[in-house]
Write a structure and sequence with these properties.
The chain is α/β, with parallel strands linked by helices. The chain is 33% helix and 22% strand. It has a seven-stranded mixed β-sheet, with helices on one face. The structure holds iron/sulfur cluster.
Length: 197
């Protein structure tokens, strides 16, 4: 499940000194994905899994120096039960947990929120509804799931952030500002970094 580990970051968990963990695999196929090595089966199979024990050892050694763990991907929620188990372990060690998600699995999100397993969640809003499928590179996907995740997060009592990557010629800032107003959310914009630059 775990393909990458950054032991120390000041930018991935708002307001916290944290470590970041990258899970492999994603149920979307955004043509502009900046983490393609984490979602393409062929390249993913070349990246060794990082043993859970080595991550836990590393985290335990940093107790008192880092406050939280950011779990990002890929899409962490595709790991469902393994994700629940992993979060339970790091929570039991006293770390705060931030989850990055594409919002595709509201039932997983609901479980995590109900069981107070996450302390912060950041969800990507990929585009306006009319361009969503094109932006996530799928022919079909129930956008009701995205809507459900947005509602769950909006109504949760944990810190959260909705964010959009401004992909040139695909995601327009002004349309997204209108969309955010329609959804009654605040949106945080990220600039697109080409993997070819
Ligand atoms: S949801 Fe994220 S990780 Fe998945 S394909 Fe899209 S940009 Fe890549």
């Amino acid at each position: 499940m775990i393909k990458g580990f950054i032991p120390f970051t000041l930018v991935d968990f708002p307001g916290k000194v944290a470590a970041s963990i990258f899970t492999g695999g994603c149920n979307f196929n955004c043509p502009w994905c900046q983490n393609r090595s984490l979602i393409d089966r062929d390249s993913l199979s070349l990246i060794e899994d990082i043993p859970l024990n080595s991550i836990l050892d590393n985290l335990k050694r940093k107790k008192g120096k880092i406050e939280g763990v950011c779990i990002t991907g890929g899409e962490p929620t595709v790991w469902k039960d393994q994700l629940f188990d992993f979060i339970s372990i790091i929570k039991s060690e006293g770390f705060l947990v931030k989850l990055d998600t594409n919002g595709s699995n509201p039932e997983v999100l609901q479980f995590l929120l109900t069981h107070k397993m996450i302390d912060f969640v950041a969800m990507d809003i990929k585009n306006v509804w009319e361009k969503y499928l094109m932006t996530i590179g799928l022919r079909s996907f129930s956008l009701n799931k995205i809507e459900s995740s947005i509602e769950l997060i909006k109504n949760s009592d944990i810190g959260h952030q909705f964010r959009t990557t401004l992909v040139p010629e695909l995601v327009e800032k002004s349309s997204m500002e209108d969309f955010a107003q329609e959804l009654d959310i605040e949106i945080h914009f990220q600039e697109y970094r080409s993997v070819f630059s």
